[in-house]
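Tokens in:
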């Protein structure tokens, strides 16, 4: 019986080739998109789940807030003393491990010199907690001794080729030697961080590196990733509730004017598997994903599949008149309604099975394309796991049944007497429900059009908004340890090149995060009073503001002619406002204390977007530290004209001559700026592509539906032409019913689109507004799409010979 159902289903599909093709093509495209999106979603949801203890591991976070309780800084790292104290004070903690990123680190083996970006100091039990596989060496002891080093097999190949690396020595930062004690397999791509060189944590106890005293008492250096392993199903909130008392017990109250430190700083816990999608701290090991993208792309996949299913329901019920006699005959010869329903469902399931096979092939071919535009490393293999494969194989039955259920119920309800006498008309409830489906399709399409326009506007706004500084032709180089001793001579040599306009140093550069802050004080009466607002700081030299073309609003820049400038400050506009001073001019000359440095304000610069547009411009103080306290991480070089290749060659030659032990490395500030919004750009590209596909599938269904509807009115069109109706009038008549549905869809879509995009834009501190004309544009585009889709069919019918139309039976 089942075989018979599918044989008849196949014959019917072949009989109505156009409608069958539209259904099959629409479902295949829809399922392809769903498979590609599913691969992306599964990859995002899989982060850190390779770790067998993932559900028991938590990362310790630290936040800072002002006296009003407003959080000013939220970090995924903490200071070094916390780790041992946590392990001592909370006996339920089974294991604790720490990682300290070392930034860009020059490493040398014989003649090979590299800048490494993924060097971490790691506790000996790192491999017990974060589940990296040790390939050579004893995982219990490889990181026990100071000045020892573990490498991934890729890094080992880069340094040693086919040599056995164990026992070899690598020079680190031209300061000390590290002995290789083992090789480990790098963490997989779906890990939230990827250390490639692990230096033993005990190395930090050496005074030439960090110092044992700092490890015990430095509460201000919050650079240490700290992970805890807790028992299975442990009530984590019990530990979190004890953190304030823990902080007050161990931290020095003197640093907080005798008040409890827990008023100003708090510890928290993040589940390891939540880090990638749900952690958005001010400092992360690597760029994270976002759970909102999971929801957005899940919704897009659902919309695409829904539109494809709506196409099937619309076209199946629309062709009901063609199958009315068939159904009547089947009922007369004894077919029961249940059997007819199974027959029609088998057709639907058959189409879905074929569509899924086509979609599988298309997804396999399209996975490289999705990798290119998403920046991911997805594999179709992620869909081959049985947990995913079984639901996928059931998909044709589910989708086929859902999309075919209404047509099956509708078609099986025909009365045989009316159908055989030709009295059946495909009207009433069927058409009403079909209109609801068409409205739903266009409502989804209008929502996607509005979302696409607003996403494009925001991305364009971020690229074109004036930042308050110049980012073109700025070369950024790292300020390594070796550079500080020869910087003056190096800068002088660079400035002899007429294509180099200026050279500056700073602790941070625009496009980075403002993570450094200390206490600020202003003069109140005859004493200095603390400022409640958190003010971030950047250490700069004399040339920073001229290099970036940052405008002074009042006062002057730091100058080599004033030795007292190492005790002076330059503020931005937001700082002046936060401090309660009336204007930039009024701020100049004010007494000011920041951290341990006391002096006065010598200038005020305009507000500029130091960070990304996700963050508001923060109150910031720019200061010059004495030579013994210099704190610089970057060199910024302003290049003139279009001679960048020759300048880069000159820079490399000069760098290698001055700093032979430090690898030459550079990037451009505008590249860093683009990287800030790379995630949004990729998300926007993927969103726009899939939105266009969804609209195309909707048009495909509308094309088939309109073609069928016009075929049913072919005689009417012939009569109208004979009576003198012109082509334009006939096209308008045939299109107006569909345009009415677009108008209804627009009224439904507008509030939903506004709500969704308003929430999306809240993630940006600086954003475009949602303009009324975007909604009208979306409605107009939807109407044009509908009119063109229907108009093609209407034009063909309106220009046909009326004699043939009147002879049509």
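Residues out:
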């Amino acid at each position: 019986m089942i075989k018979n159902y599918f044989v008849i289903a196949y014959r019917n599909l072949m009989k109505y080739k156009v409608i069958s093709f539209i259904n099959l093509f629409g479902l295949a495209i829809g399922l392809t998109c769903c498979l590609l999106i599913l691969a992306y979603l599964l990859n995002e949801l899989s982060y850190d789940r390779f770790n067998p203890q993932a559900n028991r591991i938590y990362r310790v976070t630290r936040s800072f807030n002002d006296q009003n309780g407003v959080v000013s800084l939220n970090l995924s790292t903490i200071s070094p003393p916390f780790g041992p104290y946590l392990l001592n004070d909370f006996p339920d903690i089974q294991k604790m491990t720490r990682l300290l990123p070392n930034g860009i680190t020059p490493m040398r083996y014989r003649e090979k010199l590299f800048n490494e970006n993924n060097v971490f100091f790691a506790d000996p039990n790192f491999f017990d907690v974060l589940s990296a596989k040790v390939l050579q060496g004893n995982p219990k002891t490889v990181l026990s001794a100071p000045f020892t080093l573990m490498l991934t097999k890729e890094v080992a190949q880069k340094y040693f080729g086919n040599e056995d690396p164990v026992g070899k020595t690598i020079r680190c930062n031209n300061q000390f030697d590290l002995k290789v004690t083992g090789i480990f397999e790098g963490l997989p791509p779906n890990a939230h961080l990827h250390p490639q060189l692990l230096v033993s944590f005990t190395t930090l106890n050496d005074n030439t590196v960090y110092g044992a005293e700092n490890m015990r008492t430095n509460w201000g250096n919050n650079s240490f990733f700290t992970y805890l392993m807790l028992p299975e199903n442990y009530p984590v909130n019990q530990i979190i509730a004890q953190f304030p008392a823990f902080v007050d017990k161990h931290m020095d109250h003197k640093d907080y004017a005798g008040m409890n430190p827990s008023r100003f700083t708090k510890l928290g816990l993040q589940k390891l598997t939540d880090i990638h999608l749900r952690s958005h701290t001010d400092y992360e090991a690597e760029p994270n994903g976002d759970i909102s993208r999971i929801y957005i792309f899940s919704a897009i996949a659902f919309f695409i599949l829904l539109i494809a299913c709506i196409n099937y329901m619309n076209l199946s019920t629309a062709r009901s008149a063609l199958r009315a006699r068939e159904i009547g005959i089947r009922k007369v010869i004894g077919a029961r309604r249940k059997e007819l329903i199974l027959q029609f469902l088998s057709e639907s399931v058959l189409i879905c099975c074929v569509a899924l096979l086509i979609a599988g092939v298309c997804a396999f071919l399209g996975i490289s394309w999705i990798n290119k535009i998403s920046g991911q490393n997805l594999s179709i293999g992620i869909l081959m796991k049985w947990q995913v494969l079984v639901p996928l194989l059931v998909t044709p039955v589910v989708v086929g049944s859902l999309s075919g259920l209404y047509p099956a119920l509708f078609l099986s309800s025909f009365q045989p007497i009316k159908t055989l006498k030709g009295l059946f008309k495909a009207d009433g409830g069927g058409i009403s429900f079909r209109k609801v489906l068409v409205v739903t399709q266009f409502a989804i399409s209008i929502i996607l059009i509005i979302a696409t326009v607003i996403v494009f506007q925001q991305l364009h706004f971020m690229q074109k908004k004036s930042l308050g500084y110049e980012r073109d032709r700025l070369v950024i180089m790292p300020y390594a340890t070796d550079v500080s001793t020869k910087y003056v001579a190096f800068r002088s040599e660079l400035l002899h090149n007429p294509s180099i306009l200026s050279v500056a140093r700073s602790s941070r550069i625009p496009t980075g995060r403002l993570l450094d802050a200390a206490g600020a004080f202003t003069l109140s009466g005859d004493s200095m009073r603390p400022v409640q607002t958190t003010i971030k700081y950047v250490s700069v030299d004399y040339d920073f503001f001229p290099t970036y073309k940052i405008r002074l609003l009042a006062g002057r820049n730091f100058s080599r002619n004033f030795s007292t400038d190492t005790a002076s400050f330059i503020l931005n506009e937001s700082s002046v406002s936060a401090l309660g001073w009336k204007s930039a001019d009024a701020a100049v000359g004010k007494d000011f204390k920041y951290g341990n440095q006391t002096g006065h304000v010598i200038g005020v610069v305009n507000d500029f977007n130091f960070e990304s547009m996700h963050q508001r411009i923060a109150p910031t103080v720019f200061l010059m530290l004495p030579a013994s306290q210099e704190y610089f991480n970057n060199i910024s070089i302003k290049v003139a004209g279009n001679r960048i290749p020759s300048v880069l060659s000159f820079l490399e030659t000069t760098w290698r001559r001055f700093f032979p032990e430090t690898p030459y490395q550079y990037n451009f500030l505008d590249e860093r700026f683009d990287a800030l919004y790379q995630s949004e750009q990729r998300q926007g590209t993927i969103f726009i592509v899939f939105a266009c596909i969804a609209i195309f599938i909707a048009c495909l269904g509308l094309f088939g539906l309109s073609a069928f509807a016009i075929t049913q009115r072919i005689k009417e069109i012939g009569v109208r032409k004979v009576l003198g109706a012109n082509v334009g009038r006939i096209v308008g008549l045939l299109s107006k019913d569909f345009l009415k549905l677009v108008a209804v869809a627009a009224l439904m879509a507008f509030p939903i689109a506004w709500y969704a995009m308003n929430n999306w834009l809240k993630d940006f501190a600086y954003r475009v507004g949602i303009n009324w004309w975007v909604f009208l544009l979306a409605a107009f585009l939807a109407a044009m799409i509908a009119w063109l889709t229907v108009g093609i069919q209407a034009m063909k019918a309106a220009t046909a010979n009326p004699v043939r139309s009147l002879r049509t039976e």
